[in-house]
């Protein structure tokens, strides 16, 4: 049996739709018929800069929703036809830009009844990145067990880049953790949506420069900011976050190259994958909790924009992302609609 896949042919090469075998699940794995796959900045950056990937041709895609096709040995609690969502990984057999993929069953969740496949595919990577950075022992360590009794009531927190997928998840996680003041920096056109996610204050990035941001954040907070989250991987955003923090404050940052600046404030770089060994146990806890949190409205999916032409439409979507033509929405592809 063969399937359609989207190969990145070589380092810094082109994306090409091709045929490839449908792999059988091994012990502990499930085979998923991929209905929806979300695009992420990491996908175009891998193509442009040749990072993360060890072997070409390769298949990308780290946000997946679909149906259980086949169950591997030892897998319980899943059956053929179950609607599921999960995070893919940077190896072809576990990637999303194909019609069938393999994922370890212990880091897969069933899609709640209140969202569809496209919405489900918008969640895994963004939520995982935020949760690892904010909650896990490898980040700010604010709640590694997802204990609903943990509360930071009365505390302020700052999120740089609230309209990004990761930033949206960070805002919602801080709301789940009970922070009283959740300040974010984003475009004003996203204000109402970000406040619906839990932001109490949205600072318009067209009105306040990055250089002046920290002072505005601290004035709004009116209390020491002990924790911040940077969803934008550049030096100016990190500086604004550091400057917003109180003495001894902690910053979770999506930039893997982020460094402390020697003033006692600590940065935690995020590798937002539940597949990595350091995050695997936390990942199991995450996937035990995430479907319920979506079902009860604690976590809501991104707004989505659906792409045409199945796998063949992904390349144009990534080009739009690279050109900074996507804001506040998640681009979603539908591999089963591939025609060529």
Topology:
Layout lengths: L1 E7 L6 E7 L7 E10 L2 H9 L8 E2 L3 E9 L11 E5 L12 E5 L3 E3 L6 H5 L2 H11 L21 E5 L4 H12 L4 E6 L4 H7 L3 E4 L5 H12 L5 E4 L4 H10 L5 E4 L12 E4 L10 H16 L7 E4 L7 H9 L6 E5 L7
Parallel strand pairs: 9-10, 9-12, 10-11, 12-13, 13-14, 15-16
Antiparallel strand pairs: 1-2, 1-4, 3-5, 3-7, 3-16, 5-6, 6-8
Helix pairs in contact: 1-9, 3-4, 6-7
Name the overall outline: globular
What would you call the structural class? alpha/beta
Q: Report the CATH topology name of the largest domain.
A: Quinone Oxidoreductase, Chain A, domain 1
H/E series, N to C? EEEHEEEEEHHEHEHEHEHEEHEHE
Distance from N terminus to C terminus (CA atoms, Å) equals: 17 Å
Q: Please describe the biggest sheet, giving its number of strands, its sense, and whether it closes into a barrel.
A: 7 strands, mixed
Strand content: 15-25%
**CATH level 1 name of the largest domain:** Alpha Beta
Helix content: 25-40%
- Per DSSP, the total helix count is 9
**The CATH H-level homologous superfamily of the largest domain:** Medium-chain alcohol dehydrogenases, catalytic domain
Describe this structure in words.
This protein has helices at 41-49, 117-121, 124-134, 165-176, 191-197, 210-221, 235-244, 280-295, 314-322, and strands at 2-8, 15-21, 29-38, 58-59, 63-71, 83-87, 100-104, 108-110, 156-160, 181-186, 201-204, 227-230, 250-253, 266-269, 303-306, 329-333. It is an alpha/beta fold and 340 residues long. It folds into two domains: 2-123 and 301-337, Quinone Oxidoreductase, Chain A, domain 1; 127-269, NAD(P)-binding Rossmann-like Domain (Rossmann fold, 3-Layer(aba) Sandwich), CATH 3.40.50. The strands form three sheets. Strands 3, 5, 6, 7, 8, 15 and 16 form a seven-stranded mixed β-sheet that branches. A six-stranded parallel β-sheet has the order 11-10-9-12-13-14, with helices on both faces. Strands 2-1-4 form a three-stranded antiparallel β-sheet, with no helix packed on it. Helix 1 packs across helix 9, helix 3 (124-134) crosses helix 4 (165-176) and helix 6 runs parallel beside helix 7. It is globular.
């Amino acid at each position: 049996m063969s399937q359609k896949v989207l190969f990145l042919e070589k380092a810094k090469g082109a994306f090409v739709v091709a045929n490839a075998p449908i792999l059988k699940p091994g012990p502990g794995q499930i085979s998923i018929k991929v209905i929806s796959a979300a695009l992420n900045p990491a996908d175009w950056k891998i193509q442009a800069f040749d990072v993360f990937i060890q072997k070409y041709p390769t298949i990308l895609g780290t946000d997946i929703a679909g149906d259980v096709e086949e169950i591997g040995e030892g897998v319980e609690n899943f059956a053929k036809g179950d609607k599921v969502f999960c995070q893919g990984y940077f190896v072809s057999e576990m990637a999303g830009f194909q019609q069938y993929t393999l994922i370890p069953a212990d880091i897969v969740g069933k899609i709640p009844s209140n969202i569809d496949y496209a919405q489900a595919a918008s969640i895994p990577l963004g939520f995982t990145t935020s949760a690892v950075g904010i909650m896990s022992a490898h980040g700010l360590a604010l709640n590694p067990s997802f204990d609903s009794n943990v509360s930071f009531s009365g505390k302020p927190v700052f999120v740089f880049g609230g309209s990004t997928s990761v930033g949206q998840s960070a805002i919602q996680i801080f709301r789940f953790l009970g922070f009283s003041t959740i300040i974010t920096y984003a475009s004003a056109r996203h204000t109402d949506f970000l406040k619906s996610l839990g932001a109490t204050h949205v600072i318009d990035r067209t009105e306040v420069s990055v250089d002046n941001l920290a002072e505005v954040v601290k004035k709004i907070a009116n209390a020491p900011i002990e924790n911040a989250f940077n969803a934008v991987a550049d030096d100016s955003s990190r500086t604004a976050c550091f400057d917003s923090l109180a003495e001894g404050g902690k910053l979770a940052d999506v930039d893997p190259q982020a460094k402390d600046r020697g003033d006692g404030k600590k940065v935690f770089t995020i590798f937002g994958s539940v597949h990595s060994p350091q995050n695997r146990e936390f990942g199991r806890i995450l996937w035990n909790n995430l479907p319920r949190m979506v079902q009860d409205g604690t976590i809501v999916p991104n707004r989505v924009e659906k792409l045409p032409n199945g796998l063949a439409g992904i390349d144009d979507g990534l080009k739009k992302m690279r050109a900074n033509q996507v804001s506040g929405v998640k681009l979603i592809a539908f591999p089963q609609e591939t025609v060529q």
